[in-house]
Each structure stands twice: as C-alpha cells, then as structure tokens.
Amino acid sequence: MVEDAPYEVRDILITGGAGQVGLELARADWPADVRLHMPTRDQLDLTDADAVRVAFAATPFRAVINSGAYTAVDKAETEVAAAFAANAMGPAILAEVTRAAGIPLIQVSTDYVFDGSGEQDYAESDPVGPLGVYGASKLAGEVAVTTGNPRSVVMRTAWVLSPHRANFLKTMLRLAADRPALRVVADQEGCPTSARDIAEALKTIALRMIDDAGAPTGVYHFVNAGSTTWAGLAAEIMALSAARGGPSATVEGIPTADYPTPARRPSNSRLDTFKITRDYGIAPRPWKDAVAEIVAELIPETTR
Ligand SMILES: NC(=O)c1ccc[n+]([C@@H]2O[C@H](COP(=O)([O-])OP(=O)(O)OC[C@H]3O[C@@H](n4cnc5c(N)ncnc54)[C@H](OP(=O)(O)O)[C@@H]3O)[C@@H](O)[C@H]2O)c1
Q1: 173 in a domain, yes or no?
Q2: Which residues span the domain enclosing 242?
Q3: What pLDDT was estimated at residue 4?
Q4: The whole model's pTM is what?
Q5: According to its UniProt record, which reaction does this protein catalyse (predicted)?
C-alpha cells in the first residue's frame, strides 16, 4: 500500500495487459484512487500458479480482470494444451486465489462458445456448443471461474477491434493498400466490438463489484449494437478509410467454403446484451460508431 496516500488505494490486477483489451483498460479513465497492476506475460504467466500466488502475497488486490488469453483460433486446433493452459487452467488459478482473497474476478470470454446454428441473438442462457478448441478452452475457463469464485462475472464479447496489435480491421486496411479487391466471408454474422468499449464495460463492472458485495454475478454478453457479416464489416471499413483518404478496395462477399480455415467458426454469433444493460446499466453504442472511431485513430485527418 502507499503509506502517504490521502485515501485508500484500490489495487486492481489486470492480466493480458499487452493485448487489445488490456491496452484499452490501461488508457481508460479510472478514478484517482485506483492503481492498476498490469504485468506482461513475461512478468506474470497466468498458467504459473506459484507466480500468481506470489503476486497476491505482495499486493492486497481488490479485484482481478483477466483479459489475458490464448487467442489464436486456428493455431489452437493443433496447440490444444497451450490453449487450455491459458484459457482454462489460467482462469482456474485466478478463481482459486481470488476466492481465497474474497475479491471479485472478471473474466473475458467469447461468442465462439456457441455453435452458431440458431437464428436468434444469443442470450446468456442459450445452450453452448463450441465448434473448435479455442471456444472449448474458453468455455472451460468460464466454468472454472463461475464455479470457482461465486463473486465472479464472465463477460462474453466478440469480433474485437482496436488500433492495436493484429485484428480484422487492421488486416483489411493493410490488404487494401496492396490490392484493388478483397474477397471476404459473407455468411458469418456477428457483432463487431471496440476493445475500448469492452474496457469501459469491464471498468464499470469491476468498480461496482469492488464497492458492492451484492453486485450481480454470472455470465454477461457485451458487444457493440447491431450486427453484420465479415464482408459487411470490411465494406464499412473501406468506406470509412476512403472518406479519410486512406486505403480502399472493393469487397466481394464469398461463402465460408471458399475460405477454408483449420477451425470452424459459428455462422451466427450475434450476442444479446439486454442483461448487461439491465443489471449494470451498460448500453452499447452502434458498431459503426465504434469502427469509425478506430479508423479515425489509425488514419488521422492530417494524412488527407
Ligand atoms: N480478439 C477477438 O476477436 C476476441 C473475440 C471474442 C473474445 N475475445 C476475448 O477477449 C479477451 C481479450 O482478447 P484480445 O483480443 O485483447 O487478445 P490479445 O490481443 O490476443 O491479447 C491477449 C493477451 O493475453 C496475453 N497472454 C496470453 N497467454 C498468457 C499467459 N499464459 N499469461 C499471461 N498473459 C497471457 C497475451 O500475451 P502476449 O502479449 O505475450 O501475446 C496478450 O497480451 C480474451 O479473453 C479473448 O478470448 C477476443
């Protein structure tokens, strides 16, 4: 603790701090009494139970947000042990230590826990059925967290976009700089979501859970409002980029069958966000607004 702090400091551990969501958690606007601890994977490997216990012995954390994960969906098909270590055993270790410390754990999860066969927007109570190793490993992490620490929230999100690291939006801009046309899958539908908005939602939940022992727990969905296909998202990115003088290409929609990948993906992974709005007052903005904000950050007006 800080000896001369004029108020009690709220220490929060954020794992996966170098990831898309982690970087947005770092630049979110936190209350002055919150002190974030954001170890890199080298500094704190989630799968190392002893290292996690040492970190907990050193600091009286008030909450943990786990945004660290093995996120290589296709590679996970062959790196099964690595995916389950980070996505299932890591959260299990965090559940154990947070429960022992009596503090809340907020775990980020994925739309890929669903098989995508439904026509509806998926609610938290809908049956899960992951199509691949990544989704299965994340589902195992959900179970470990919700059963391991009763003061926990699992927040599923989807199609994460940001100005950081590798993601679909950045890939489309990079490819458009070299090619006149892009062929993009048009029969998978989901909810593009800004890592910044995910970070804001996680912040709201963490602060409420720290202050209110009776705060709602369980599984929640958070995505930006509305939905589209990967081809629809690509077309929107191209339009936004062109309007700012950035790279642009025409988008041709293709079926999934024409773009085979090692991991199968759900054809519908739209998530219903009614519950998080009802319980936490979090109201997602439209995905097009979120995408426009990221494109504007990547292609500043001054480059026009
Ligand atoms: N990306 C998506 O489209 C998407 C969609 C739905 C849900 N999600 C979920 O959203 C969350 C955040 O995703 P993201 O896009 O921010 O992921 P990301 O950019 O891939 O970042 C993940 C972070 O976790 C770290 N990490 C991996 N294994 C670790 C370990 N054993 N110990 C400690 N840290 C470890 C990575 O370290 P390095 O920096 O060393 O790689 C990286 O910093 C994850 O739970 C993911 O499953 C993502």
Answers
A1: yes
A2: 10-303
A3: 53
A4: 0.95
A5: dTDP-beta-L-rhamnose + NADP(+) = dTDP-4-dehydro-beta-L-rhamnose + NADPH + H(+)
Q: Which of the 8 DSSP states describes residue 188? A: -
Say if 81 falls within a structural domain.
Answer: yes
Residue 208 forms part of a structural domain = yes
Number of domains comprising the chain: 1
The alpha carbon of residue 59 and the mean position of all alpha carbons in its chain are separated, in whole angstroms, by 25
Mean pLDDT of all residues belonging to the chain? 95
CB proximity list for 40: less than 8 A, separation 6 or greater: 17, 18
| Intra-chain end-to-end CA distance of the chain, in Å | 49
pLDDT digits (tens, 9 = 90+) for 115-139: 999 899 999 999 999 999 999 999 9
Atom of ligand 1 nearest to the CA of 23: 16
Closest ligand 1 atom to the C-alpha of 134? 47
State both tokens at 303: 């480059």
Query: What does the pLDDT average to over 60-81?
Result: 97
149/90 Cα distance (integer angstroms)? 14
Ligand 1 pocket: which of 50, 67, 71, 134 to mutate (most atoms within 8 A of CB): 71
The runs of H, that is alpha helices, within the chain are 20-27, 49-58, 80-84, 90-101, 133-148, 168-176, 195-211, 230-243, 274-280, 287-298
Question: What pLDDT does 5 receive?
Answer: 55
Q: Give residue 218's identity as a one-letter amino acid code.
A: G
Q: Give the CATH number, domain containing residue 26.
A: 3.40.50.720
Distances (CA, A) of 36 to 85, 205, 206: 25, 15, 12
